[in-house]
Specification:
The chain is α/β, with parallel strands linked by helices. The protein has a single domain (12-279), classed as NAD(P)-binding Rossmann-like Domain (Rossmann fold). Helices cover 44% and strands 13% of the residues. It has a seven-stranded parallel sheet with strand order 3-2-1-4-5-6-7, with helices on both faces. Helix 1 packs parallel to helix 2 (52-66). The structure holds hexanoyl-coenzyme A and NADP nicotinamide-adenine-dinucleotide phosphate.
Length: 281
Amino acid sequence: MAAPVDTTTVFLPDTLKGKVAFVTGGGSGICKGIAEALLKHGAKVVIASRSLDRVTKAAEEMAKSTGGECFAVSADVRKPEDVEKAVAQAVEKFGGIDILVNGAAGNFLVPAENMSYNAFRTVIEIDLIGTFNVSKACFPHLKKSKGTILNISATLHYNGTPLQSHASSAKAGVDTLTKVFALEWGPYGIRVNSIAPGPISETAGIERLLPKEYAKGYIRAVPLQRLGSIRDIEHMAVFLASPSGNWISGSNFVVDGGSWLTGNSFQYPDSIERMRKMAKL
Ligand code: HXC
Ligand code: NAP
């Protein structure tokens, strides 16, 4: 089994010195891990989500664990006025933005025929419209810094994932924004890429989508025979945000132990009926 490695053994600790990052969804899960990795590598980091309490606690914890500077702001990425305000706070605090990580997202399992109109719209608004809103608000600062955007995508839409029509559609849209922003903003020196994690253990995403009793069967469909760790995603984020990524733009990086090759993680080898059972629907 291929074990995850410690980020600090891979990149130099001052790789991102002098950079400022703005990370949505940075108070929990994968994007908290990314925020911490950026801090460990010398960046100053602003984390944003709806719950000021959550991001404030996370910022204090990560400043302590890394010795870096982490600042918390609250914003609902669906609301442009919230986003503009949070970006202005970040720029006032640290003087600019070099790295934007669009990680805020929502997801839950529900068959399309039972999904309310508002449920579908909610996930599209958080994942897709939120990515547009935050990217647009950060654009003037990224243009100034010749910065970079990392969109946190998924592999759900490669084949379409049952019970996740909202999130699959939203992430397909996010991948399209990655390409269009890369085309439009490349001439300003802004690089735009996305990372598509596979199922990552100890995250809200996996707790919502893969009940523990099904994990073992699921892992059989991952060529590397394990779930991912938050650390696995951090490596890719540091790589892309650093000068190693200087000529990479408009690309999507799948970090999933090879599971996208088995068709679709959540379909293979389960039938939709089994998935309904798993989700108790
Ligand atoms: C059916 C549901 C539902 C559920 C909410 N809704 N949860 N429908 N099953 N489990 C419906 C509600 O009834 C409502 O529709 C609409 O969705 C909006 O719900 P609210 O609770 O009002 O929305 P809001 O407070 O804005 O919260 C957003 C949320 C919530 C997405 C619903 O779960 C959330 O805050 N999530 C953030 C954390 C999260 O989801 N993390 C996982 C990311 S993982 P009606 O019609 O009743 O008004 C991820 C993994 C991807 O993205 C890939 C993994 C491999
Ligand atoms: P998570 O911990 O639930 O992270 C989602 C974050 O988004 C939360 O911190 C939440 O904070 C924030 N958020 C939700 N709605 C928001 C809104 N409207 N405005 C601002 N912030 C909002 O989930 P995770 O599992 O680590 O997922 C992180 C990212 O990885 C997501 O983009 C997800 O799609 C992607 N991903 C995850 C997996 C996985 O296996 N976990 C796999 C593939 C892709 P608040 O509640 O405080 O707002």
